[in-house]
Amino acid sequence: MKKYILSCGLLLTVLATRAQDSVWMQHKRVANQPLFTVENPDYTASPFTGMTRKHWKDAALYLLSGAFSYIDSPDDPMQFPKQPGKSYPRNQGGVVTEKLEGLCRTLFVAAPLLKENPELIVHGIKVGDYYRKQLVKLITPGNDSYVKPRSSTTGPTQTLVEFGGLAVSLFTIPEVLWEPLTAEQKETLARTMISYGDGPTVGSNWKFFNIFVLSFFKDKGYTVNEKLLKEYIEKSLEHYRGDGWYNDAPAYDYYSMWAFQMYGTLWSKFFGDKYYPAYAKQFRANFSDLKGNYPYMFSRVGEMIMWGRSIAYRMGAIVPFPLMGLEKDAAVNYGWMRRIASGVLLQFLRNPSFLEDNIPAIGFYGAFEPAVQSYSCRGSVFWMAKAFLGLLVPGESDFWTATENEGAWQKELKKGQVYNKLQDSSHILITDYPNIGAAELRAWCHVKAVGAWEQFRSSENYNRLSYNSAFPWQADGPRGEVAMNYVFLNDKKEWEPARLFTYKKFENGIYYRDVEMETRKNIRLQLADMPLPNGILRVDKNSSDADAAVRLGHYALPAVKGAIKTTTRKVKGYTATIINNGVYQLAMVPLKGWTKAEAVAATGLHPVAQESTVINTAADFKASPKPDQAIYVTLLLWKKAGEAWTDNELLPVKKLTVSADAGTVTVILADKSVKQIKY
């Protein structure tokens, strides 16, 4: 039993039982860390969050303190309780890798703190000494944390990933981690890490792990495979698609923006400027491109969208914002960048579900099994700590000194309007809704689930029609409960979600895609999404040549203030179904084709609360329908709770006209503007 006082001003009593030898034993905690608080907020420099660079350091120490609540002595591995479910380790064979992840990933939060205070002590443990001792254990045969050098027949493994991360920390604080090692320890660590860096990789962001390993040891005078190093650098640059986006082979998500951009920027700073200035220049040019669109992917109050496999890394998505502070760029609104970044930190640190047993759960807020990937262990979540690599940006940088502001949300994005930004090469559409201060996106998904070894690539992480900062995605249910997607009844009598989307065009404010059912390819839809100030107008065409039972879902609401209320309202002959959770209201108004809408309760499908509700509508698609019967039109609307709906808000469509061949649908909106959907 120990009593610790955190230097960030938080009192934490930790009652612990250690179970070092068995991953299946749960560490017991009588008292958990309290919620993070911004101590002595500075509302002059940061009028929206109160957070300055000092508070970022407090947040880093808060997370590090939770991790070190599992360390009773410098010999203890950085090993945490397993989260029940599909995460690893699933047997003793994964324990060494689990320990390696915990060690290397918590270093991302420790390294920036050690950079400024090499004598840092947490819970009575001298942090720098702890990590050095653990590095030595990695290279000591017979130790329970020992990592063998890669054999010539071993392919890319998780060890490569962690050594790549370790190399970033070695670059960050060589004076703490590297220089105090003996010559023999350096030689052994170099030989082990290089064996993985000078080897095969995965055709994605993984190449950066090889790059950082080889770069660090080249910088320290070791002989490395420079031909392979240059090959991986060039191939990483080939992933670039414009507008700040890299493709992560095959998907786009937050990670393919923030990770590629962070790796390229830090590699250039640590190594590239000295050894490969031409490559560094390319990475910097690519980094500069993100400022015109990436900030628009976050809500007005600084919330990130739940999207993609990387969501367990959460706040890691903000690291490009402080890294902008490495250079003076008159085109960057640094006060807005810090407002977004600090807002995202608070989005999670202030959520009572975020920590479980003093460390982040695998999920979005709390533990959420539908979003967990099998390659994650409990320590994996500390990949999010790369956000704190922003502390490497000097305190005098504009990122830290500019006055916090709301950027585009102050004047550019006006209430009563909707704003779209298409990313030309990636076909990602970013939409901002000033009426509720939310950001939304539509992105690529075209991955089969049947027989796939990475099921998450075709899951709800990617296959939603859109993703919104105000409405985290809900998992599909066995009874056809679906949120922001189509599901079809397949031959197994199971509800199969749409996942094989093909982007067509973005024209006149309308985003066009085709989609086909994976197991019944004769079930097809031509989709048209039209963002509106208070929601989305869907005008979709059934182009199937077989019958099918179909369901379409709105976003879902979690029950956060008691039971969710459901009401209906007639508006000019149409029926609006409305749900209200005390924070937001969602309304669905079927205009054509659909039979009815209904509020569907769900349990265990939402990342925010155990109970949730979604509005679904249903239809029976007919094979080769007549033109007028092929069109399905739906309004998916929202407002904040407590605001009354006007008739024009519930029915912003005044008239619909379908052409004789159903190739064109003309929409006259309540504001008298005319939109033509052309498939």
Describe this structure as you would to a colleague.
The protein contains 14 helices and 28 strands. It has 679 residues and is an alpha+beta fold. An 8-stranded antiparallel sheet has the order 15-16-17-18-25-22-21-20. Strands 14-13-19-24-23 form a 5-stranded antiparallel sheet, with no helix packed on it. The protein has a 4-stranded antiparallel sheet with strand order 9-10-11-12, with no helix packed on it. Residues 1-19 form the signal peptide. This is DUF2264 domain-containing protein. InterPro entries: DUF2264_N (IPR049349), UCP014753 (IPR016624). Keywords: Signal.
> What order do the strands of the largest sheet run in, or round the barrel if closed?
15-16-17-18-25-22-21-20
Total E-strand runs: 28
Overall helicity: 25-40%
Low-pLDDT sequence parts: 1-30
Sheet/helix structural class:
alpha+beta
Count of DSSP-assigned helices: 14
Amino-to-carboxy terminus distance: 67 Å
- Mean residue pLDDT: 94
Question: Which descriptors apply to this entry?
Answer:
disordered N terminus, alpha+beta, single chain, 25% helix, globular, 5-stranded antiparallel β-sheet, 679 residues, 28 strands
Topology summary:
Blueprint: E1 2-5, E2 11-14, H1 53-68, H2 95-116, E3 121-122, E4 125-126, H3 127-138, H4 158-172, H5 174-177, H6 183-197, H7 207-219, H8 226-237, E5 240-242, E6 245-246, H9 254-275, H10 277-288, H11 320-323, H12 334-349, E7 355-356, E8 359-360, H13 398-401, E9 419-423, E10 428-433, E11 438-442, E12 467-468, E13 486-489, E14 495-497, E15 500-507, E16 510-516, E17 524-532, E18 535-542, E19 548-558, E20 565-571, E21 574-580, E22 584-592, E23 596-603, E24 611-621, E25 631-640, H14 647-650, E26 653-658, E27 664-669, E28 674-678
Antiparallel strand pairs: 1-2, 3-4, 5-6, 7-8, 9-10, 10-11, 11-12, 13-14, 13-19, 15-16, 16-17, 17-18, 18-25, 19-24, 20-21, 21-22, 22-25, 23-24, 26-27, 27-28
